[in-house]
Design brief:
The complex is a heterodimer of chains A (307) and B (266). Chain A is mainly alpha-helical. Chain A has helices spanning 23-45, 51-58, 61-93, 97-112, 115-123, 125-128, 147-150, 153-179, 182-190, 195-225, 237-248, 251-280, 292-301, and strands at 131-135, 141-146. A two-stranded antiparallel sheet of chain A has the order 1-2. In chain A, helix 2 crosses helix 12 (251-280) and helix 10 packs antiparallel against helix 12. The two termini of chain A are 25 Å apart. With 266 residues, chain B is an alpha/beta fold. Helices cover 38% and strands 25% of the residues of chain B. Chain B has ten helices and twelve strands. A six-stranded mixed sheet of chain B has the order 8-9-10-3-11-12, sandwiched between helices. A four-stranded antiparallel sheet of chain B has the order 2-1-4-5. In chain B, strand 11 (231-236) and strand 12 form a beta hairpin. The longest helix of chain B is centred in the last third of the chain and has 16 residues, at 195-210. The radius of gyration of chain B is 19 Å and the shape is globular. The chains are: A mainly alpha (307), B alpha/beta (266). At the A-B interface, helix 9 and helix 10 of A face helix 3, strand 8, helix 4 and helix 6 of B.
């Protein structure tokens, strides 16, 4: 078979056409430029922002303490939320109706009530359960503690955020597990792998690809939701800026300063999410699991070989 | 043990790899297997053919307890599949015990079911490392040998998505062989492949048969059945309609249903 080429006749002249004009883009650019200029002007000249006041407190000791508390609350709530979420999602998927029912009830409560209200309850946990004890249910107790001394503001904040987060993570993880092809479990079973091994080695790593993006969302939500522990109250970033502005009466500068901190923290988390997603996209076609250039090159090389 | 049925004794005596006695299987009210009697001897390659919905894949899946049988008895490698019999009573095996039985049975699926997040080498190494707890170095050597055997040594570091269907299926065969099974089950291993890729998979299976592996192959490849198979089973409507050497059944089918089926596929 011969392929018709233009070798003899020479290649026809490259097309030079008048491109389509986009006047709408110019209008949009002009509008955005004006708005941006107005915003920069506002940032530079507004008296209410008081940048010097913000700068004075941005790295002050109480603010840094607040930031530290915000960070550890986020980390603990997410870590605990993921772990408890895995347990809850496995319970939900269990064939045992008692386990799946119990998990459903948990989700029903924690997703059905506002986090702020839950945190208010944690703040008043001492009135709800005055004492905590070990003993026989409905029978004698061997040891009893005062709830007030057992759960301080910090642990109440962490518990409140974690238990709430676990409910949301459970659903995300369940969706991830269900997204993995059933053939994967069959192949694992046929190789003699146990359920636990199949879950850990085969299903969860693949589910992660579906789990990570919404979990990144949850991590950002949790970072911001830490501000709700003022309900307990516990001194994280938002509560700290409130305390400062209560004394200095500089409300707006302190709020903007808090926003800057939240933006810095969430930006770092977004970078982390990017790398996490890349890690768990290993082996997926079109992913950049091993660096996109390498993958592109490989695809060019194996062109026609892969389906 | 008292009350051991004659079947198990017979299976042990004859040294059979698979013995099925009146095996029934229903999905809800739909009965898919209606009394299957079969025997597979060591080193035998049995090909199972039949129209879709005849129950051949279901029967294959019963052999490693991916499906639970409802009636009859099924022995593989001398063990009752999925149950323990004691004092005339059947006891369901625990998950752990079922998993132990499956270790000696390799299975190859129509849709490969390779682990997409693992390289070809990792797919083959997985089960021996995780299940048998063998040292990684030793398993890696064995896995590379197996990949070489299926002609994919140079693809060891590739992910399944970078392999063609035929290559994926060959990795899947190597993965099953890594557990050193006494029996290999093939569930329509070439049905999901492009026509030009079928040959390479059948070639690997043929080599395996020549090496003396006991195989049960559900297939539509009559050429393979004729060339490699020691026995051919024609199933239809949940029963074994006809059974014999591939040559006899393919060239001189006795039953009208076999004749009808073969006239359509040959």
């Amino acid at each position: 078979m011969t392929v018709d080429t233009d070798v003899e006749g020479g290649r026809p002249e490259t097309i030079k056409a008048v491109p389509v004009r986009h006047p709408g883009r110019w209008v949009a650019a002009a509008v955005i430029a004006v708005l941006a200029a107005m915003f920069v002007h506002f940032l530079l000249t507004s008296k209410s922002l008081e940048w010097s006041e913000q700068w004075k407190y941005l790295f002050s000791k109480p603010v840094l303490m607040g930031v530290r508390n915000t960070i550890w609350l986020t980390v603990v709530a997410m870590a605990g939320g993921v772990l408890l979420g895995i347990v809850l999602s496995l319970m939900r998927l269990s064939a045992n109706p008692l386990l799946s029912g119990a998990a459903w009830l948990y989700l029903w409560f924690f997703r059905g009530t506002p986090l702020y209200t839950q945190l208010l309850i944690w703040g008043a946990i001492g009135s709800l359960f005055p004492t905590v004890g070990i003993g026989i249910p409905f029978g004698p107790e061997f040891h009893t503690w005062q709830t007030q001394t057992l759960i301080n503001a910090a642990s109440a904040a962490a518990l409140g955020l974690t238990l709430n987060e676990a409910a949301y993570m459970a659903e995300i993880i369940r969706a991830g597990i269900l997204s993995v092809d059933e053939g994967q479990q069959e192949a694992s079973s046929a190789l003699g792998m146990s359920r636990t091994q199949t879950m850990r080695r085969i299903v969860l790593p693949q589910a992660m690809r579906v789990i990570v993006p919404p979990t990144g969302n949850e991590a950002l939500s949790t970072l911001k939701n830490t501000s709700l522990v003022v309900a307990i109250p516990y001194a994280e970033l938002t509560r700290t800026q409130e305390t400062i502005s209560a004394v200095t009466y500089k409300v707006i500068p302190m709020l903007v300063m808090a926003c800057l901190w939240y933006l810095a923290l969430s930006s770092i988390m977004m970078v982390g999410q990017h790398y996490l997603e890349r890690h768990y996209s290993k082996g997926v076609r079109g992913s950049n699991g091993e660096g996109s250039e390498a993958r592109q090159w490989l695809r060019l090389r194996t062109r026609g070989g892969g389906q | 043990m008292s009350g051991v049925p004659t079947g198990e004794k017979a299976a042990e005596a004859a040294g059979l790899v698979v013995k099925a006695e009146r095996v029934h299987k229903s999905f809800g009210r739909l009965e898919v297997l209606k009394g299957i009697d079969l025997e597979v001897k060591p080193g035998e390659v049995m090909c199972v053919v039949g129209p879709s919905g005849s129950g051949k894949s279901t029967f294959l899946r019963c052999m490693n307890h991916l499906e639970k049988i409802n009636a009859g008895r099924l022995w593989v490698n001398g063990h009752l599949v999925g149950y323990r019999q004691s004092g005339g009573k059947l006891y369901e095996l625990r998950d752990r015990e079922v998993a132990a039985q499956r270790r000696d049975i390799g299975m190859v699926f129509q849709r490969f079911n390779l682990f997409p997040h693992k390289t070809a080498l990792e797919n083959v190494m997985g089960a021996p490392v995780w299940v048998k707890k063998l040292p990684k170095d030793q398993v890696k050597q064995q896995a590379l040998t197996l990949l070489e055997r299926v002609g994919l040594a140079e693809k060891a570091q590739s992910y399944p998505s970078q392999l063609s269907g035929g290559q994926q299926q060959r990795v899947a065969i190597a993965r099953a062989l890594a557990m050193e099974p006494a029996l290999m089950l093939f569930d329509e291993p070439t049905s999901a492949l492009d026509p030009e890729l079928v040959g390479e998979v059948l070639e690997v299976m043929k080599q395996l048969a020549l090496d003396g592996m006991t195989m049960v192959v559900v297939t539509h490849e009559m050429g393979f059945a004729r060339e490699v198979g020691d026995s051919l089973v024609f199933m239809d409507g949940g029963v074994v309609v006809e059974e014999g050497t591939p040559r006899d059944v393919l060239t001189n089918p006795q039953h009208p249903r076999t004749q009808d089926f073969l006239s359509k596929v040959l």
